[in-house]
Write a structure and sequence with these properties.
The complex is a heterodimer of chains A (about 270) and B (about 100).
Chain A: H1 7-15, H2 21-42, H3 44-72, E1 75-76, H4 80-100, H5 110-132, H6 137-162, H7 177-198, H8 203-218, H9 231-256, E2 259-260
Antiparallel strand pairs in A: 1-2
Chain B: H1 2-7, E1 12-13, H2 14-24, H3 33-46, E2 49-51, E3 67-70, H4 72-97
Antiparallel strand pairs in B: 1-3, 2-3
Classes of the chains: A mainly alpha (about 270), B mainly alpha (about 100).
């Protein structure tokens, strides 16, 4: 007799997503069942208290163990293509950070920084997709295509503007760029959600991408962001910084972290 | 070792193991589902425990519930570890336990 799941058990099953995918596949049914036993015999308060503490400790240790296993045996070094794309992403993310976080460099290089950021973003999206497609080819592709297209479109528009001498002001961007930029932030957000959902790479990096993209989109305005010195501007700049950091983290991961080899279940 | 002792000489499911561990440690160790099943998976991989083939009556029990028991190797490991700990306790008893 398998009892239908109650609200507490459904919520607990949802929280099990913090564990690695293969761990969940093996254990989630029994864990939910055990959680249900605890609810019946120990009450919801004590059960949730214990379950929360247990999630926080065992999920972390399980991710670390998984990474160790992957690093030691069931793994291969990143491909040369993955490494190259990842390094491009790191460079792009770094340029986004210095562009928007007030690091002063030659104004003539401003547009070049945007170009490099977009190249890096596209590179990382491709590299992440190459990793994720072994787990969920369709979802990975659905996540990657909008991000590649939107970043490439933004890249093309910015590249055309780079040819113009001097620094760009808000009026120089033309009528289309705001829409393309909006599509870029939203597609990056979607890509972050998909990457977080698949869990092939660090969820911290994909969560950072989601948060950063959301903040960046919210603050688009007319490229002047918000009024200087306002709280909104601070939040938005922090979001863009997180966005750049996310590309750096994802780039580092695809460039240097060993990739899992898909093996048949025993 | 705690999970092995929690299973003991019987066949036990996750919650019973969890309760047994709590009992034998006088409530000092309260495991959660993640800790229990992470350890169970390692013990299964190491051949120290096995899943029982017998299933409870579907009308009497949740079919998701799995029962585990010690293998011969698991019993040997528990015995060896218990003897090792007993030796240590014997060595400590004359002075360390009296000091309390």
């Amino acid at each position: 007799m398998t009892a239908p799941l109650g609200g507490h058990e459904r919520a607990y099953r949802g929280l099990l997503r913090v564990y690695p995918r293969e761990y969940r596949a093996h254990n989630s049914d029994q864990m939910v069942q055990l959680f249900g036993d605890q609810l019946r015999y120990d009450g919801s308060g004590r059960t949730w208290l214990r379950a929360t503490r247990d999630l926080a400790t065992s999920a972390v240790s399980e991710h670390m163990r998984r990474n160790r296993i992957v690093a030691q045996s069931l793994s291969m070094a990143p491909t040369p293509v993955g490494r190259a794309l990842g390094v491009l992403g790191v460079i792009g993310g770094a340029f986004l950070l210095v562009t928007f976080l007030g690091v002063s460099i030659n104004p003539d290089l401003f547009n070049l920084r945007l170009v490099l950021f977009n190249i890096g973003a596209v590179a990382v999206v491709l590299a992440v997709h190459l990793r994720q497609r072994t787990v969920a080819p369709r979802l990975s592709l659905v996540g990657a295509i909008p991000a590649v297209l939107a970043n490439a479109a933004y890249l093309i528009l910015i590249t055309r503007l780079v040819a113009q001498p001097g620094d760009l002001g808000p009026g120089d961007y033309g009528p289309f760029i705001p829409y393309v930029a909006g599509a870029m932030w939203l597609s990056d957000l979607w890509f972050g959600v998909v990457t977080f959902r698949l869990g092939v790479l660090s969820r911290m990096s994909s969560a950072a991408l989601v948060i950063g993209s959301t903040a960046a989109f919210a603050g688009m305005g007319v490229f002047g962001l918000q009024s200087p010195g306002s709280l909104a501007e601070t939040v938005i700049l922090a979001g863009i910084g997180v966005h750049g950091l996310a590309w750096i983290l994802l780039g580092l991961e695809v460039a240097f972290r060993r990739r899992a080899v898909v093996v048949e279940e025993r | 070792m705690l999970i092995l002792l929690g299973i003991g000489p019987e066949e036990r499911h996750g919650y019973a193991i969890m309760q047994q561990v709590s009992d034998i440690t006088n409530g000092a160790t309260k495991l959660g589902p993640g800790a229990v099943y992470t350890t169970i998976k390692r013990l299964l991989d190491d051949g120290l425990i096995e899943e029982s083939d017998e299933r409870p009556d579907p009308h009497m029990d949740d079919q998701r519930r799995r029962y585990y028991r010690l293998t011969g190797l698991g019993r040997q490991v528990v015995g060896s570890e218990a003897r090792r700990l007993d030796t240590l306790v014997q060595a400590a008893r004359p002075w360390a336990l009296e000091a309390r």
